[in-house]
């Protein structure tokens, strides 16, 4: 019997694209929630003219695999050390900049995106497991944070298809020993305004992932590439007097700087964006309070700087 909760995920940066670097439970385990593995198999219909009007069995075409999962947004175990999701962020089109003893920052790049191999183990009660694997995987993510609760990162990865295999259940994983901090007592700033009362924030990196078809590639696939991104943000500040902050005067006219902290001390995560460009404002209701449901772009200011994630 296989249980939903008895799953294990390992992820490791690839040294050579598409070549499995053999992640281990001791070094590459990531604490995840709700992992969902999906096989994307193209159906090729066969519909020739024949004596009858019956339907012939389809055959398979291009094959890829997709894995979605959620992790707690938490910082590093020590200042200047990468978080457990560092390899995943780099495989979502971000570059890693380490300042020794201080912080690790992830920001967008447009070339040389890293890739990862991801193992997804499903384990039964007899000591056996099924291993589902993505190689050459790249993806996208969404961060959600709600007042008084934990912040989460929801990843979606597309990779090369590998047939599932029966294996022995892996040993006990070593997870990052950092407790996530709730979204509370933090600074949120929009255009240097820090008095806004915001109940929730959602940031979507919105990478567009492309499958490169090839006649010489296994399952008809050469590679997986990130070909564009359109990061967005949604937030819901309580309505204020126009003289306190006029959101509408900014709408599609004046991009504003945005920043938000999650946590403090070791484990703190800071999100910054230089050009939050409001595209839609809708009145909303949160517990009987009028809020402004804001949807905005996270635009670039000087190139590859739409948003940055700093782990301390």
**How far apart lie the N and C ends?**
41 Å
List the uncertain runs.
Answer: none
Mean pLDDT: 96
Structural class: mainly beta
| Fraction in helix | under 10%
Radius of gyration, CA atoms, in whole angstroms: 22 Å
Q: Work out the helix count.
A: 2
Strand content: over 45%
Largest sheet: 17 strands, antiparallel
How many runs of DSSP E, i.e. beta strands? 19
Tally of discrete structural domains: 1
Report the principal-axis shape. globular
SSE pattern, N- to C-terminal: EEEEHEEEEEEEEEEEHEEEE
Outline of the structure:
This protein is an all-beta fold. It has helices at residues 86-90, 247-250, and strands at 2-13, 29-30, 33-44, 59-72, 94-99, 103-108, 116-124, 128-146, 152-161, 165-168, 188-190, 198-204, 207-213, 221-229, 232-237, 256-262, 269-286, 289-298, 308-311.
Describe the structure.
With 312 residues, the chain is an all-beta fold. It has one domain. Helix content is 3%, strand content 53%. The strands form 2 sheets. The protein has a 17-stranded antiparallel sheet that branches. Strands 13-14 form a two-stranded antiparallel sheet. A hairpin with a 3-residue loop joins strand 7 and strand 8. The mean pLDDT is 96.
Fill in the keyword field for this structure.
17-stranded antiparallel sheet, mainly beta, two-stranded antiparallel sheet, 3% helix, 312 residues
